[in-house]
Design a protein that fits this description.
This protein is mostly helical. The chain has helices spanning about 5, 10-15, 25-65, 80-85, 90-120, 130-145, 145-155, 165-170, 180-210, 215-220, 225-240, 240-255, 260-265, 275-285, 290-320, and strands at about 70, 75-80. It has 2 domains: about 20-65, no CATH class; about 85-320, MetI-like fold, CATH 1.10.3720.10. About 75% of the residues lie in helices and about 0% in strands.
């Protein structure tokens, strides 16, 4: 009587010898996986190294310096949480935080409102060439460096020679001291920030609007829905992911507003238009109080992180994932 091995064909015996558990095949698979892993690490290494050097490293250094008294000229002296306690007594810091919160609120409302309005207008049935013209015109300011944009607007905001007051006077109004008035200095910063950044958010909304199913819109219209009902009930939920992205990016950017204030108002008059980031730079590089500046920077980082986490927590309640 023949054994099972003897009755098997040569092909079957060869397959059994080189089965999934064969040492040679396992070794070859392991080598391939190691090679793929090394390739992946090689491609991601520049990003990881850059993150460690330019993000994680400075963040750790800032947290360490926030616990010290350090003026660049002497070695850091550990003082614990004294710098953080000092912030509660700093009236200028409270003022700059108030200004920054105002900039954030204005940016979220104005940038996204105008961006959505322009995106809806561009998404209408216009000739393709005209659509490209409008899209490029709205987006172009975002491509220009903020410093250059601010220099141009500084000339437009001049009280005696600026074009803004030229038209206001032509309409019978009084000239406004845009850059030296406590009220209008903040408004001038908000105008420049909105004008410069609305184009980027607009492109995000345009891309989202183009993904709204046309058959769903047509079905709603056939059921008797007017344009406002279609927009509110169908379009707005369908572009909620783009809305969430734009709001998140706008908040993070507005918390870090800096260049336009430097050029337009230099934070004045007094601290009327000064932002937190500008105050950090002043404390660090004008007063050389690196420890206190680092403490403010750490708190700003924590605030931005908490606001962002809160947004992601609330995301499920209003963002459509389909």
């Amino acid at each position: 009587m023949t054994t099972t091995t003897e009755t098997q064909s040569p092909a079957a015996r060869q397959q059994g010898a080189a089965g999934p558990g064969a040492p040679g095949r396992t070794s070859r698979l392991s080598a391939v996986k190691r090679q793929d892993a090394l390739t992946g690490y090689a491609f991601t290494a520049p990003t990881i190294i850059g993150f460690v050097i330019f993000v994680l490293g400075p963040l750790i250094a800032a947290f360490y310096l926030s616990l010290t008294k350090y003026n660049i000229l002497t070695a850091p002296k550990f003082v614990g949480f004294d710098n953080y306690v000092r912030m509660f007594r700093d009236e200028r810091l409270a003022t700059t935080y108030g200004n920054t919160v105002l900039y954030v609120g204005a940016a979220v409302v104005l940038i996204n409102a105008f961006a959505l309005l322009f995106a809806v207008l561009i998404n209408q049935r216009l000739p393709k060439g005209l659509t490209y013209v409008f899209r490029s015109a709205y987006f172009f300011p975002y491509l220009v460096a903020l410093v250059y944009v601010s220099i141009i607007w500084q000339a437009l905001f001049q009280k005696d020679t600026g074009i803004m007051n030229y038209y206001i006077a032509g309409l019978g109004g009084e000239k406004i001291d845009w850059l030296n008035s406590p009220e209008f200095s903040k408004l001038s910063v908000i105008i420049v920030d909105t004008w410069r950044n609305v184009g980027f958010s607009m492109l995000i909304f345009v891309a989202a609007l183009q993904e709204v199913p046309k058959d769903m819109v047509e079905a709603a219209r056939m059921d008797g829905a007017n344009e406002w009902q279609v927009f509110r009930r169908i379009v707005v939920p369908m572009i909620s992911q783009a809305t969430f992205f734009n709001i998140t990016i706008t908040i993070i950017g507005a918390f870090q507003i800096y260049e336009s204030i430097i050029v337009l108002t230099r934070g004045g008059p007094g601290d009327a238009s000064r932002s937190v980031v500008m105050y950090i730079a002043e404390v660090a590089f004008n007063k050389f109080d690196m420890g206190y500046a680092s403490a403010i920077a750490v708190t700003l980082f924590i605030i931005i992180m908490l606001v962002t986490l809160l947004q992601f927590r609330l995301r499920k309640s209003w963002v459509n994932n389909e």
